[in-house]
Amino acid sequence: MATPPHLPPAAVVALADILESDTFAPPLPPPPPPAPSTILSTWSHLRNPSSPNTTLAALETLYLHRRSLRLSSAHLSILLPLLPLHPRLVSPLLAASPHLLPSSLPATLPVSPGHLLLLGALASARGANNLSSNANSASTTTENLGRGESDNGRDGDPVVAVTRILDDMEQGSESCHDLDHLALAGIGYVLACADELQFRKILGSLVRVCGRTMNLSVGVRLLKLVEWLLLGFIELRKMHKVQVLFEIISPEMCERQDYVLFPVVMAACGALRALRVASVRYRLDFDPRLKAAPEQTIQFAADKAVLEEKHVDDMCILRQCVALGLTQCGQVTSHESVLHCVCMALLEELLPLPDLLKMLVQSPDGNSAEVVKNRFKRHLDSILFKEAGPVTGVLCNQYSLASDKAKTFVETCLWEYAQALYCHLRAAVLLHQGKQDGLLAEIEKVAEAAFLMVVVFAAEVTKHRLNAKSSEGFRPEVAVRILVAFSCLEHLRRLRLPEYTEAVRRAVLVNQENAATSVLFIESIPSYAELTSKPDLLSLDGTRYTWYRDEVQTSRILFYLRVIPTCINLIPTHIIRDKLASIMFLYIQHSNEKVTRASHSVVVSFLSSGNDTDQDDRMALKEQLAFYYIKRTLEAYPGVTPFEGLASGVAALARHLPSGSPAILFCIHSLVVKAKDLCHNSKVQDKSLWRSWEGSTEPCKKILDLLLRLIFLVDIQVRSLSHPIIRSCVEHCFFRKYFFLCRLFSEILIHC
User: Fold this and answer.
1) Of all residues in the chain, what percent carry a pLDDT higher than 90?
2) In this structure, what are the phi and psi dihedrals at residue 640, rounded to the nearest 5 degrees?
3) Residue 513 pLDDT > 80, yes or no?
4) What DSSP string describes 122-169?
5) Best mean pLDDT range from 169-183, 202-216, 683-697
6) Distance set, CA 328 to CA 10, 23, 271 (Å)
């Protein structure tokens, strides 16, 4: 029989602390040691309780400081009677001093997590103090186990008692839903002390019982339990037990025993983590075949998770466990089904935002909104949401080593996810903004995590698809898909991430060098009809849809407007005419200043652009759009139109249209009319307006300044101007600082 490991009794409590959290966060540090008077007062309350509440409060105090307590037999006599009433508080206290426990637990003690923890404590004490006795009883225990007999624990052997309890859980006579950290800690230490046959039977039963719970928390704790076990076995050079565990969770055994697979996956991931930690901690170089065994189990489970029905409950939890478990394993061999499984888990289980938003939009009444809000809150507190970042890292690692076919599949899933998120988020914000702002705040927390996930993945994609030196081949069309995905999520961008900046930079560079991808990018912009229509998913119940108040869509268009100038030189003129022109001028009077400024930048970039293949057509379109641009811009000035945008547009128009262009003349005429109106209104409102010119921000002065600069820039024949226009200009140039300009206009008028 294998010799049980000699570990200190405190290890039982330490294991319970490790397993207490159902996340992968390390155990919380113990609180500061209590004052002696506090502990003395607590024991006094337990000796002479005044009420059940006093007893409960005293036990909670002892439980909080359990790591710093040292119990005596007198303390034991106080705690034992309280064990059946408060097993979860009392059993960890007793487990810290198993040498004080009686040789067998009271027969009246019900099966509970505390009961299992105490059995583990007894196993610890026996393993430490009575190795020879355990060895002598091994043959009897093994015979009983082989015949399926449980001697009902009459010999006081905690290993046999735990075996019997797990058998009862398998058969349904005992509940398996109390399998919390205390129960698993007790079972874990019994496994550490058991011989090989006992180890086989208990571990097999534990896997089956965990499978019946369908509980993700049990799976997370099982991973940590297996890691703890294997690190102990490796430290004590008990590698045969490691091999036994790998045999029990092997794909062949899974099929033979028909295991529910999620606890098997977590056990395999716990084993991989233990091998990784041990190789660093003890400087060991394991045989690669040892690591391959649990990896094969994970691949087997991933195959099942991908091929089975999409929303079957056991497949959902299996995908969750594959994704979460791999975050603890370090680098593992890439496998197509593992990549698919992690991708599905991330998009459907960890960040299931489109499905939740769809539910919210389809049932917009107040009660449904409250239900969805509570679901979001629960999800934010869950390990699934908290581990979304590490799982994204696993996805990127698996992607980087995958085949081209697998890469394409995952890319498609992520881009479609981004577009689905945009559609549902847009509808949800339109429907609930100003009515359910608390709900929208909860939604945005999950949505921002989804944004980070897409950004990190896209940055990884650029390394493989947009790198001309990549052995996998250059894929310029992927640049468009990345930019489209980012446009869908622009509303959620809060930080300037280096991954985001690098992904956009690479995608934009590809667009600038490839006319075909530039055209694809422009064609991906929603049409004018789409932009001015309500979302298909949304029913506004007679409420009028106002497109410029659609914040999510506005953010998306803003992204497009910022990227368009980088590639407009490569866009054929007919596409600009058919696709871009209406959109540019739709947003030139937008209430969002960022959108308006970006629209002016697009106009400037278009006026500055050149295309050798259709130069005449392009110049004709510039002339045509210049009229409309000046008209729309001046209509909204001052107010919506920023002066800087107007000035840049006028300057581009003057520089890039031919001399004598009717559009330039129309621009000058329109500016004069606008300046006249503004000056008249300003003089009426403030007669001292003209006493100070420098540094003035008055719209009329800005327009006049722009007008005068434009006349100096434009190379046209002044004789072609009609006298009223020139006279109108001169009438407004009566300022002392600009007297020389008035004289110049007078001379021009004389020569005309």
Assistant:
1) 42
2) -75, -45
3) yes
4) HHHHHHHH-HHHHHHTHHHHHHHHHHT---TTTT--HHHHHHHHHHHH
5) 202-216
6) 26, 11, 10
CA–chain centroid gap for 595, Å, is 27
pLDDT in tens, 597-614: 999 999 999 998 876 667
CA gap 129, 591 in Å, rounded: 80
Q: CB within 8 A of 369, min separation 6: which ones?
A: 360, 432, 436, 439
Intra-chain end-to-end CA distance of the chain, in Å:
117
Return the structure tokens found at 190.
């019994």
454-486 burial string, b = 16+ CB within 10 Å, else e? bbbbbbbbbbbbbeeeeeeeebbebbbbbbbbb
Report which of 397, 382, 279 is spatially closest to residue 332, judged by C-alpha positions: 397
Q: Which residue has the tokens 């049980």?
A: 4
Please check whether residue 96 is in contact with residue 12, taking contact to mean a CB–CB distance below 8 angstroms: yes
pLDDT in tens, 235-269: 989 999 999 999 999 999 999 999 999 999 999 99
CA distances from 245 to 119, 213, 332 (A): 22, 21, 19
Q: Give percent above pLDDT 70 in the chain.
A: 84
Output the pTM of the full model: 0.85
Tokens of 23: 């996340």
Residue keyed to tokens 């729309």: 632
pLDDT at position 245: 95
Tell me how crowded residue 332 is: count the other CB atoms within 10 A of its CB. 20
Residue 715 CA, distance from chain mean position:
57
pLDDT at 449: 94
Residues 441-444: contacts with CB within 8 Å, 24+ apart?
A: 442/373, 442/376, 442/377, 442/380, 443/353, 443/356, 443/357, 443/376, 444/492
- 10 Å CB burial of residue 596 (0-12, 13-18, 19+) is buried
For 695-709, what is the mean pLDDT? 75
pLDDT of residue 562 exceeding 50:
yes
27 secondary structure, DSSP code: P
Three-state SS annotation for 642-676:
CHHHHHHHHHHHHHHCCCCCHHHHHHHHHHHHHHH
pLDDT-wise least confident of 357-366, 603-612, 720-729 = 720-729
CA distance 357 to 481: 23
